[in-house]
Amino acid sequence: MSETWSIIVHGGAGLIKPERREAKRAATLAAVQAGAVVLAAGGTAVEAVVAAVRLMEDDPHFNAGFGAVLNADRRVELDSALMDGATLDLGGVAAVQGVKNPIEVAHLMLRDEPVLLAGDGARRYAAEKGAAMIDPEAMIAPHRRTDDVADTVGCVVFDVEGNFAAGTSTGGRPGKRPGRIGDSPIPGAGLYAQNGVGAVSLSGEGELILRRILGARLVADLETTDAATAADRAIGAMGGQGGVGCIVLGADGGPAFAHNAPDFAVAMAQAGKPARAFLNRGEWQGD
Ligand code: ASP
User: Fold this and answer.
1) Which domain does 165 fall in, by range?
2) How many domains does the chain fold into?
3) Do residues 118 and 142 make contact, with C-beta atoms less than 8 angstroms apart?
4) Residue minimizing CA distance to atom 8 of ligand 1
5) Considering 28, 44, 152, 170, which one is annotated as catalytic?
6) Model confidence, pTM
7) What is the CATH number of the domain that holds 268?
8) Is 152 in the active site?
């Protein structure tokens, strides 16, 4: 066991309107702090990811959990996944309605047989396993009836045992076709974690991330390079498309992020360093 741990969260790739900037900064900071508390107390990477993502799912300003964007039927339909880099266990739900915290359902699935469950099957699994269920109407935040800002959330963690974990959670793209599944719950697309290599979580146009298996490319790159170089290469591979952002922890737990969207809200914390939040790469000097 070492004294070193690190955590990064993101609150989605995309333009952050001037009137939302400071609230967004505070919300991502609160999320990273929730994860950092778990890590400082000796908690696991998986536990820290769940703590940070759950907080953002409950915050209506993010496009995840309560207050997520609406699909074409004006419903909240969620994608979320959690991956343990120590075992390569993965749990993910897609196009699910009626669950309060999809990251909680992903957590329940982590050591269970199914890796991914969609739609009504995911909802029934959640109910059977005792996850918090909710009337889908109660997941709609008033501002979502008029506001289409997409703020997917994600978190990557390196804990004191040297374990990596990653999580991503979203309502997907505003006005999406019911049943549409984005990159967020798909390993090698919206997230990945592997001990000895690193962890990643992404945001942006899911169809483009899926077609390029961007998360898998990032992780393959991390086998031979540092987090900052891998993050820059992944964004470079998008050729300016997709409004994408990625958070990355390299093999040594070193943090980095990159994006081609105008903004990408990120907060990071490491053992012995205070938590900091950035609304784009221009605000980050590197570590
Ligand atoms: N990647 C998410 C999706 O396509 C949305 C986003 O990150 O804005 O579902």
Assistant:
1) 6-89+140-283
2) 1
3) no
4) 204
5) 152
6) 0.97
7) 3.60.20.30
8) yes
